[in-house]
Structures are given as C-alpha cells and as structure tokens.
Amino acid sequence: MKKIYIKELNKYYGKEVIVKAFVDKIRDLQYVQFVILRDSSGKVQLILEKNEDNKEMVEIISNLTLESTVTITGEVLENPKVKLGGLEIIPTNIVITSRALPELPIDINDKEKSLRETRLDYRFLDLRRAENNLFFKAQTLILKAMREYWVDNGFIEIQSPKISGGNAESGAEVFKLDYFGTDACLSQSPQFYKQMAMAAGFDNVFEIAPAFRAENSHTSYHATEIFMVDAEISWIDSFEDVMDMQEAWIKYSLDKLRDAYALEIKETFNVEISNTDVKFPRITFDEAKRIIKEKYNYVAEKTDDFERKEEELLCQYVKENFNSDFVFVTKFPKSSRSFYHNVDEEGYSNSFDLIYKGVEITTGAQREHRPEILERQAIEKGIDPETIRFYIDFFNYGCPPHGGFGFGMARLMMKIFELDNIREATFLYRGPNRLTP
Fold first, then answer.
1. Over pLDDT 90: what percentage of the chain?
2. What do you get for the CA distance between the two ends of the chain, in Å?
3. How many CB atoms are closer than 10 A to CB 179?
4. What is the model's pTM?
5. Which of 26, 90, 208, 349 has the highest count of CB atoms within 10 angstroms of its CB?
6. Is residue 112, in this structure, part of any structural domain at all?
7. How do residues 201-240 score in pLDDT, each as one tens digit?
8. CATH number of the domain that 172 lies in?
9. Residue 395 DSSP class
10. Are 21 and 83 within one domain?
11. For residue 205, which of 232, 228, 229 has the smallest C-alpha distance?
C-alpha cells in the first residue's frame, strides 16, 4: 500500500490504508482512545477501543507525545458524527517513527501564547500551524502564476549574479565581503543586469531571486534578505506600458489564487482576495499630496516622497472612491528617484509606485537608456560615472527604450493576507538582530 494523504481518505471507505502524520491531539479515556493525526493536507481522527486485542496499540498511544510522527495502518470508516471530514481510522498497526519531547518550547496551536521572537527561534515548529501551511501553499501558487503569465507572454527568465563588484552599488546599504582579495558585495537588486538584458535584445525578462539590504531597520516591513520579483520590458513608449503590464500580471496572479484558495483563506485568515474587476487608479504624486491634505488634513514633513501615513490615507481614499486596494502613484519628483530613471521636461521622474492596502509594494519606471543623459544624472546624484562605467557601457552600442519594476515577495504576501509583520510572511526571516536559525 502507498501512503495516503489525509485529504484523500474519503476515497477509501472500507479499505485499509497507510497514513503517515504528526500527532496533533490525544484523548485517552477510560474505554477508548482518540488521536488526531495531521499531515500537510489536513487532519483525521483515529479511534481505538481499549480491549485485550488492542493491548499493544493501547500501550503505544498511552505513551505517545504530541508532535511525534507515526505510521498508521488501518481501515477508513465513514462516520457523519465526526467533525473532521465525517470519517475516522480504526488502526490495525501503529509505528512511532520519531518521538517528540514531552514539553514543546512554543504553543503551535495558538501563536498568541508565545512571543514572536521565541516562535522565530523555533520556526520549524511555528511553521507547523495550519495557517502557515496554507500561506506558503498560496505563495507557491502565486509564484507559479507569475511565471506562467510571463512565460506565456514571451518573457525570458534570467538569473543575475548575487556577488557584485564593491563599486557597483551604493556603499552604505550593502553587505561587503572579500572576494579573493578584491572588494565585493552582496547584490541589492538585479537592476543593472535586467537592463543589460534589454541591451542584449532579450526584449522582456523577469527574475525571482534573493537580494540583500544592509539596512539597520527594525520595522514591520523591512528585512535584510529578501526575495525579489523583478521584470523589465523593451520598446516601451512610456512608463504607462510598464504599469499596464504589471496590472494585468497582478490581476492574473490574484485570480489564480482566488480560484484555488479563496474559501480556505477566508475561513483561516478572514481575508477576501482583492477585487480585480476594476482598473487600478493612477494618480500623480502632486495630486495625491493634494488629496491627502484636503480630504484628511494631513501634511507630511517629506515633500518629495510619501510617509507611511500618507500611503495609508491614499489607499483609504482609493478604496472609498474606486473600490480598489491598489493605486499607482506617478510622476515623483526626480530628487526622490534613482539616477537611472527617465525624467520629463518638467523635471518629474517618469516613474511610479504601486501602493497596496496602505503600503508601497513596487517602484517602477521608464529607464534612461541614453548614455550621455545617464552619465549627467549620475553626476547630479553625486555618483562618479567611472565607478559605474561597466553599466553605462551597456547603452553605448544601441539599446531600446525600456522600463520595469521590482518588489519584495514577502511584503506583497504580507498585504494579501493582511499580516501585521513581514516576519510572519517569510519562511526564515533575516534582520539586523536575527541570523538564526
């Protein structure tokens, strides 16, 4: 017999099966024993009468500990009175494949009973909670949908290097390392290499890979190691083309998520998948500032970028007026944008942020592909063009107009599921004070 997943047991009524699972709960009563078994697909009840024929198995269950792993051979019986799937297993053989210590360091059934940092210390146990299992199943599906959309639309997947020359990126926020006697750093972003692919004539590319930010930030939205999702497209007429692609791609991915997991997500997280029937509103930076001031009487200290409070208020406005959880903010002042962003005649960056449920999740732009302008803009930002000569050279031999975007996957997932901290949306979080497990 092959191993059967718990979710498939309703196909095997009256038949003998093998189930391999964790021990979730144990009730040892006077005449009967109940064990709740859990695998990655669900839970099922095992029931065993205390009699002479079952003496050996009764003894095993009497000494069983929670979270041990077992292999159960038994018969599947339909029982409508049982809340877990309307069925139960009557065992004929029980084998303990690993025994857990009797005292768990965290409560895996109720995360609120353990401190977050303690749960992160024992993340391998914390991840056993059903909500985490569902969360990462959903992330897997979204990543599949993202790739699916891009591949179906002619994109090429690239893998850019994660070790870069020490002069390739800004110094303050990179992790520096010795590379056989030469200064190097861990890559913050595949930005330069995505643009190299445009110069190579790849037309449309994407990458889903790690990136590293040496930011001593302890907020709920930042991490030092992130999983970046990036795309770049050629032959664009404006940054509007990039927004069009991203909007269609996000809607495709969310629709796939809704089809597969909407009910489970609603039951487990009490969250509705965002509406994809409406067009994402597009509001200029200046207009957004005006709306926030006039509608909510809020004026931020920052004048060339947004504060988090402003992002929250703008999303509130968009939700109330457009029934959208998403909003594109365009035309940021060039002072708040990177030197490689294209700039219009009025001095505004041809760029955008995509804000989702009160948090910026994406920065995108039309890139500056003309080397003489790129070099001038680098100097304006205080960057010596010689330190990025390899990058500027990409554009000296012909390069199509292009643009793209990038964002951290965990931040997107955090907002889809309305979690309060990026640590909960990361398989293993890395921050300034966390390097283990």
1. 95
2. 37
3. 13
4. 0.94
5. 349
6. no
7. 999 999 999 999 998 989 999 999 999 999 999 999 999 9
8. 3.30.930.10
9. G
10. yes
11. 232
Euclidean distance between CA atoms 41 and 24, whole angstroms: 13
Q: Which of 62, 81, 98 is the last residue of a domain?
A: 98
Does residue 229 share a domain with residue 364? Answer: yes
Tokens of 397: 């031999």
8 A C-beta contact, residue 205 and residue 155 = yes
Do 91 and 135 sit in the same domain of this protein?
Answer: no
Distance CA 152, CA 297 (A): 46
Mean pLDDT, all residues of the chain? 96
Q: Are 87 and 108 in contact (CB under 8 A)?
A: no
Query: Which two three-digit tokens encode residue 102?
Result: 């009797």
Q: Is the dihedral of CA 57, 61, 63, 66 positive or negative?
A: positive
DSSP 49-60: E-SGGGHHHHHH
Report residue 163: phi and psi, to 5°.
-115, 125
Token look-up 């005292």 returns 103
Q: Which two tokens stand for residue 340?
A: 């490689």
Q: Are 296 and 313 in contact (CB under 8 A)?
A: yes
Q: 158, 207 in Cβ contact below 8 A?
A: yes
| Cis, bond preceding 437 (omega within 30 deg of 0) | yes
Domain count, the chain: 2
27 touches 33 (CB < 8 A): yes
Could you tell me if 345 and 413 lie in one domain? yes
Quick one: how far is CA 73 from the chain centroid?
A: 38
> What's the pLDDT tens digit per position in 47-105?
999 999 999 999 999 999 999 999 999 999 999 999 999 999 999 999 999 999 999 99
3-state secondary structure of 335: helix
Containing domain of residue 271, as a range? 126-425
Same domain, 160 and 11: no
The answer to whether residue 119 is domain-embedded is no
SS3 201: coil
> Does one domain contain both 160 and 89?
no
335-380 pLDDT, tens digit each: 999 999 999 999 999 999 999 999 999 999 999 999 999 999 999 9
Say if residue 394 is in the same domain as residue 314. Answer: yes
